[in-house]
Every structure is written in structure tokens, then in C-alpha cells.
Amino acid sequence: MPRFVVDVMPKPEILDPQGKAVLGALPRLGFEGVTEVRQGKRFELEVEGESSEALLEQVRAMAETLLSNPVIEDFEVHAQSDEAAE
Questions:
Q1: Could you tell me how many helices (H) and strands (E) the chain has, helices first?
Q2: pLDDT (tens digit per residue) in 32-84
Q3: CA of 53: how far to CAs of 26, 31, 44, in Å?
Q4: Which chain regions cross the lipid bilayer (predicted)?
Q5: Predicted structure pTM score
Q6: Backbone phi, then psi, for 39, in 5-degree steps?
Q7: Angle at Cα 81 formed by Cα 80 and Cα 86, nearest 5°?
Q8: Domains by residue range for the chain, with CATH
Q9: Rg, Å, the chain Cα set
């Protein structure tokens, strides 16, 4: 069964309070040198059928209509190989 990964991130011009909170906490935990943190979402979908360009387009449509808010978020869709899933 094909597996697809959808990575969703806030657009660069959108404030990211969760990323800012992580950025502020890292030095307090002893981690230095990080200059920016952006927090996003990752979805892994297993879809019935054979992996194809049509199936990839269907997952892109899912990402655009449900998994992301296109007004404030960007997304990328990738087909995940069997080796990467293990």
C-alpha cells in the first residue's frame, strides 16, 4: 500500500508562537546556536491502490482542502518508499 507524507509549515510571513517558545527554551536547556525554529505538522497517509501520479494528486488535494490552511500554511507532499518506512 503506498504511503505519502504531507509536511505542513506556517508561511514565512506568519508568526509562529510555538516555534518562538521552542527557540526561547533551547538556550535554557543548554542548547546554543539555534537562530530560528518553525513548528509544523506531518501527516503520513497509507492509501489503497498502486502508487501513481493520480494518487499523488489526490493526496495533494487532501492536503490543500483538509490537512492545511492554504491562507497561512504551505505544504509539501512526498511519496515514501518502502525502505524509508522501515
A1: 3, 3
A2: 999 999 999 999 999 999 999 999 999 999 999 999 999 999 999 999 976 55
A3: 41, 42, 17
A4: none
A5: 0.85
A6: -105, 135
A7: 95
A8: 3-85 (3.30.1280.10)
A9: 16
